[in-house]
Batch of 2 targets.
Target 1
Amino acid sequence: MKILGIDSSGLVAGVAVLQDDVILAEYNVNYKKTHSQTLLPMLDEVKRMIELDLEAIDAIAVAAGPGSFTGLRIGSATAKGLGLALGKPLVEVPTLEGLAYNLCGVDGLVCPLIDARRNQVYTGVYAFDGNQLRVVEPQDAVDIAHIISRINALGRERTGAKVIFLGDGVPVYRERLEQGVTVPYAFAAPGSNRQRAASVAALGALYFAEGRVVQAAEHRPEYLRKSQAERERQEEQARQEELSSQAESAHRTEQEENA
């Protein structure tokens, strides 16, 4: 079984190829270039280095969200285009599950945090039974205070269980975590604290074996919440409706006074 993994859901863009239980190649870049500049060149380089025939892959595993709206669109469009061109199915790997899989096999709880701004994070809570990922809290967009509260509650329920935090939300909210978390915790090391295409490919292989695939034409990224532009449009629309309502109310009052 050969799986191509793609992840551009956050600050890191990556491509990896898994054959059975072996990562043949992985190329990740966390730099200031846009993913549209890096993703396809990375794929071309991986193809060249391991003499990969894309026709030989069984499926394309893609980090399917949540995450950066632009990054998700780039990764999804790349995976979808390859799937359509090659006639290969896609495995949609939830971003938080792929990130948690960086710590496959650890004891305790794993809590990935992706900065969603406005004091919110994309997060979930996971545990492992061997290599099997178990969802304790499904991925969601929540206030940082909410996930700290949930982690404390889960930690008390599982006496002695350590929680490991990882993701680009850690440096943003590290002080809040250090002040608010009351159960044993740690932060992941640099080699495993950001999205990795190899984890998406490895988890994608497990999901592929379970039949969790979609046709390329059916794939849509999971944003979990509206983009900032959409939120701003809705806020502006609500503001204009409120102004209009106030103007109508003032007009009616004036008419009643003049009656």
Note: Strands lie at 2-7, 13-19, 22-29, 59-63, 90-93, 109-117, 120-129, 132-143, 163-166, 185-187.
Target 2
Amino acid sequence: MNLFLRLVLMCFVFVSAAVGLFFSRSADAIPVFARKYQTACQTCHWATFPALNSFGKAFKDNGYTFPSDDEVYVKESPVAFGGEGWKKMFPKSIWPSTITSVPPVALQIDSNFLVNPKNDKGKTAFDGIGAVELLMGGTLGESLSWFGAAPLFENEGSAKGSETHVERLFFVYSPTLFDKKGLVNVEVGRFEPRATPRSQHLSIIGVTRYLFSTWSTPPASNFTAFFPYQNGVEFFGGKNGPKGNGGLIWAAGVVNGERSGDAFDPDDLAGLVDSISEKEGESGSAFDVNNSKDYYARVSYKIGGMGVLGGGTVEESQKATENWQDNSLTLSGFFYRGNAGFFNDPEDGFRTSWHSSGNHFWRYGAEAEYSWWNFNLFGAATYFSDNTASDVTIGGESGSNFDAALYTAELRWVALPWIVPAVRFENMNPSYDVGDIASFNTYSTDITVLIRANVKFTVGAAFADGNAPAGVDDEIYQMGVKIGL
């Protein structure tokens, strides 16, 4: 499709979004935390959900509580399990706790219309109700919190689409140390590791996913380190900088390591891994693509802006406009070290070539996030280094090193408080001993129109250049609605 036709189609999609504005109906927002504090979604979200503003990040890093005087702002009185006197009697009594007086749950509903002119099996798709997700969260006393997400329905064009599973569910322990919270926290359960360059769950570009969350090397099949759901334990914390501005954030964790069904798979090896899983399951052993465990770390420093653990007042974060503005620069470094299974001969099948471990890999890099006025610019350099314990043969050639460099840039702009365009550019540079893939670029864009504070209409598109291998999203147009209830 030439550039002119692409522009025409994008204009059509944008006009459709505008029409959708005038024919939409309102929906009353009752998200879990907004209900608890009886505050607007924009208290924590950056002009449009799910992206978090500085206050929202501080809220999350404080164990889903307000950075200071949390009890003052709670409007929904919790049910107490025990009294304050129990604390004085501890350990001869049970430490008290609280739960919310109403079920701490919310729903997120997606509906999308997609166009893919290059898809031979079908060029358009309307999923009706594409997904219904149950969102949960709350606090259990002053130092324990929890969060969960469980898709109740996902329309994938088959019966598997309605399978319910736990996407994320984790607990956070946030003790008070030296009269302060947030210095050290412990997170346990199923979560997205903080080593991930940028959270997939908090992205406002929905037409495609970050390549660093989906890319994997041929010998490892569909395993990717930055899979957004991992089982494990993570330690994290932070400290505000001088005068309460900016500051230091750190994180380190150990996770099981998992294969990703969403990972890019240039040689269509996912089916081979599934076959191995079924085979080993039939023999009575549980399949685990990672017989050892992965570990990672991350450190960030924010210059200027709101303190990383809060700074400024709640009233400032609740202002009707410009709550997304936080003039600041955040610099980060991260690494992820793991071990995955691999094929000696991916083209020949698993029967004689599969190893359940031996692909020792690193994922590391640096990133910068700059916020100024109504703009937010993010950039990351992510490096993939895979080294197999024995040579891998592809196309008659053998080798053991599979390296790649990925450069990501994303720009968000609040054109109006209810119109937020965003664009993303990704440049992937594989350098494999065997089975090498040419460098390529991808381009993604979304325009978000907030119909209501909890209802957004999006139009977007994703393209890839001619060097992109099969499996990378290319020439996809999407128009959708997302509602939080």
Note: The mean pLDDT is 78.
